[in-house]
Amino acid sequence: MPLFTWSSKYSVGVKILDEQHCEFIRGLNELHAAMMKGQAQSVAATLLSKMVETARKHFSSEEELMTSTKYPGLAEHQGKHRELFAKVEDFSSRHKQGDKTMYLELLKFMRDWLNDHMLKVDKLYTEWLNGHGIH
Questions:
Q1: For helices 40-68 and 123-131, what crossing angle results, to 10°?
Q2: Which of 45, 46, 70, 105 is least surrounded by CB atoms within 10 angstroms?
Q3: What does the pLDDT look like over 22-37, one tens digit per residue?
Q4: pLDDT value at position 91?
Q5: How far apart are CA 117 and CA 120, in angstroms?
Q6: Count of beta carbons in the 10 Å neighbourhood of residue 46
Q7: Which class in CATH covers the domain with range 14-131?
Q8: Which residue in 72, 57, 67, 63 sits closest to 24, CA to CA?
Q9: pLDDT at 115 over 90
Q10: Rounded-to-integer distance, Cα 6 and Cα 11, Å
Q11: Running DSSP on this structure, what letter comes out for residue 7?
Q12: 88-111 pLDDT tens trace
């Protein structure tokens, strides 16, 4: 059973961004599945790298769309992105140091962050971007 399941309630009304959100969810669910099989240690480095790259690509896409439409909440949104990167880098560092307790914390953090970010923070730009013809 997946840890996090995509549904239309998470949609931000912009196809490319929704697809990227789904990539995050797949990565989170892959790590969860590996943990359930006792394989987190062997796949975590690859999955963490993949999640960081997905985040980098996604945040760049979001910020480009916000910049091109002069979204008034851009600076605050960028701050949220920086917070996530700092936290993920901390998890990555802990993993490299052999901290096996971080997997459950990472899953909970990412699940909660995605839930909060998509349902609250990202929803703030939906109307703005859609109003500027971005769907």
A1: 40
A2: 70
A3: 998 998 898 889 888 8
A4: 87
A5: 5
A6: 13
A7: mainly alpha
A8: 57
A9: no
A10: 9
A11: -
A12: 889 888 988 988 888 889 888 888
Read off the amino acid at residue 113. Answer: W
Tokens of 22: 């789904």
- As given in the structure block, the two tokens for residue 99 are 């901290």
pTM: 0.88
| Residue written as token pair 């929803």 | 123
> What type of residue sits at position 19?
E
60 has a pLDDT exceeding 90: yes
C-beta of residue 77 within 8 angstroms of C-beta of residue 125: yes
Integer Cα distance of 116 and 67 in angstroms: 23
Distance CA 51, CA 44 (A): 10
Banded pLDDT at 9 (limits 50, 70, 90): very high
